[in-house]
Write a structure and sequence with these properties.
two-stranded parallel sheet; elongated; 5-stranded mixed β-sheet; Nucleotidyltransferase, domain 5; single chain; alpha/beta; 132 residues; 3 helices
Length: 132
């Protein structure tokens, strides 16, 4: 009995490869558009001169019109801010602290945060304002 062997060729279907690439492209574009930074909606005061700093390495303290304080976008108390600044001073003393207050915030609320910074003798501080 004489049997002939058939060679099976393996073919990768390329019809759906463009669909997969297109869906992958859409997924990457959507993920890259997500903003992970939490912001408090405030009206920035205006300044004549400004200096830009890198936002990734900063600790942001937000103060709204009512005097509510936020640490990197999350609501917190002044005690929490004091503990966070103390921990930051021990781990990374060169980290810049940004104080971001609404234009209509009474100065007494901003002064409470400044007193904490004075007590802890933290000197790398910036006041964030809107560029004129």
């Amino acid at each position: 009995m004489n049997l002939k062997r058939r060679r099976k060729s393996f073919v990768v279907p390329l019809n759906s490869m463009s669909d997969v690439a297109f869906l992958l492209l859409i997924f990457i574009m959507l993920v890259s558009l997500i903003n992970y930074r939490k912001e408090v909606k405030i009206a920035y005061p205006e300044a004549e001169t400004a200096r830009k700093t890198s936002a990734d390495e900063n600790l942001e303290i937000w103060i709204d019109r009512a005097g509510n304080t936020y640490l990197d976008g999350d609501p917190c108390s002044l005690r929490t801010i004091e503990n966070a600044i103390g921990d930051l001073y021990r781990t990374a003393p060169a980290t810049r602290i940004h104080i971001i207050a609404d234009r209509d915030t009474p100065y007494t609320h901003v002064n409470e945060v400044i007193r904490i910074l004075q007590l802890l003798q933290y000197r790398v501080v910036s006041f964030v304002v809107k560029d004129a």
